[in-house]
Amino acid sequence: GLVISDGSRVLEYKDVAIGEVWLCSGQSNMAFMLKETGDTSSVCSDPDLRFFDMKARWNTNNRRWSDDAIAAVQRLEYYHKASWTKCTDSAAKSFSAVGYWYGRRLREALGVPVGLICNAIGGSTTESWIDRQTLETRFPAILKDWLHNDFTQAWARKRAARNIGAPDSGASRHPYEPCYLFESGIIPLDRYSIAGVIWYQGESNVTRANQYKESF
What we know:
The chain is 29% helix and 19% strand. It is an alpha/beta fold and 216 residues long. A 5-stranded mixed sheet has the order 5-4-6-3-7. Strand 1 (2-5) and strand 2 (10-13) form a beta hairpin. The longest helix is centred in the middle third of the chain and has 14 residues, at 97-110. It is globular, with a radius of gyration of 19 Å. It starts with a strand and ends with a helix.
């Protein structure tokens, strides 16, 4: 535990771990859970490997979301509430397979506690993970009317329109929108000292490979 006192007040924090925090992000291959691999026989519980699993409240599959879901997404309320959990057998099986094995290797190499934040959204565009100021400065054209803008891949735009019922619903915000996942899922992490990031996939930018080299 950790105890802090100024002589008149005492703050006590239990179960404190000091080590490195890594962000595991990207598309569906990063979100792919360990239990979905079909082989979890090598999973080991480890109280010094910890998970912060940011799962989406709604998948971006081929259907229209409910009106309540669409309204919540417009308010940037896209993720379930997450909290830190220790690596147990059950927690590991529901966590990113890539993230888990990377964390195991980090634990072996560093010999310190490791915290993994998984924040990966299937099919997400790379530009949706970038902050608005950067895009306004370096790639402003991608922000203009994004649902009808060829700088964002057609598949992603069509799927987003299907999810939010555009234009009938009047909604425009979606996880595939430029800046959206940064604003809803990265800004809330800004108080963490992130040691590094691992990223998996870029298929939703495949039609503009040269652009992806810059945005990545």
